[in-house]
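sorry for the late reply, my laptop died twice this morning and i had to redo everyting from scratch. anyway the thing you sent over, i finally got around to it. pasting the sequence first so we're on the same page, its 353 residues, then the predicted structure underneath. double check i copied it right bc i was rushing
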Amino acid sequence: MITRRNFLRLSALMTVSSLMTACGSKQEDARLSFLNWQDYIGTDTISDFEKSSGVKVTYQNYASNDQLIWMLGQASSQRITVAGYDLCVPSEHAMLALRRIGLIRDFNPDAIHGIENLTPALQKRASDPTNTFSVPWALGTTGIAWDSRVVTEPPDWDIFLDPKLAGKMSLLDESVDGIMIGLLASQLKPDVSDEASLQTAVATLKKMRQQAILNSSTYVRDLVSGKLSVAMAYSSDFVIASKLNPHLKFAIPKSGGLQWTDCMVIPSKAPRPKRAEEFINFVLRPDISAGIANTAHVNTGNAAAYNLIAPEVRNNPTIFPDEAEMARAYPMPFHDDAALKRINAAWREVKSA
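ok and here's the structure:
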């Protein structure tokens, strides 16, 4: 099972961006190429869109923001043979990096309808306050998932230093997320502006790496099977895993976790941007948004859909955390290119440990 989420090639893609131009044919064919995280869509979302629009959807998955950036960069520079991606769902911090290097485009004027259905906070996100190039898909948190038969009390990040659990723990192989957790595990705020703090985080993560593997692609399956007892996890992944293994638990540690928003964006070289906009408008409908929430078990941030969401989803504290839980989750910081270079270098050092 591939799940949700190395900005390691970001600098190399900077040269690609100069070749980017917003494009799209006037006569678009009835197809849509959609890149998204695994298990992150409603059971009937695609089939319902195909029936209502006559558009055939090709759906592909990726395991991390780092992988998505690489895929878009390769496709845009024509290093791989692809028909072209029309829509994808990066996390906000990755979205802004993609924006700066020219890999995503603006929506056509007046093309997006239904923004008013979102919560007021999501309508005016700091990353794109006018919703010019992005629309929220879902939001969630990053914390710790654990097997309650092995770990009896809610753990903090220092559990990843426990030699008794060596080989039974995993950290997400995601550069920005990983460094932020390294800072939190070092009792620091998720801020890379201070070089000394960044190096402290690297030292902590190196120690964690002695006991824990890096795994973004199979950790859900491994938690379910018992191969892993503890994992740095996305809340949406945990909900999937907990359906299959009721012994699994999830929490934002006392030292803090992360909160994130994933957004729909259109790649700069999307061959069918209008089809992507049609799909975005479809997803913004309350009934469609509720269907995604009910079957993918995520918070879509669509206020107009809330009463259509099944009670067992609305009342799930992992999907809709209370204020006390969210108070421990830091919003994922946005980084400029200089900060991303430091993060990439730091993560390479961690991975080589």
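Residues 10-139+260-320 form a domain with the D-Maltodextrin-Binding Protein; domain 2 fold (CATH 3.40.190.10).
thats about all i looked at so far, will dig more tmrw
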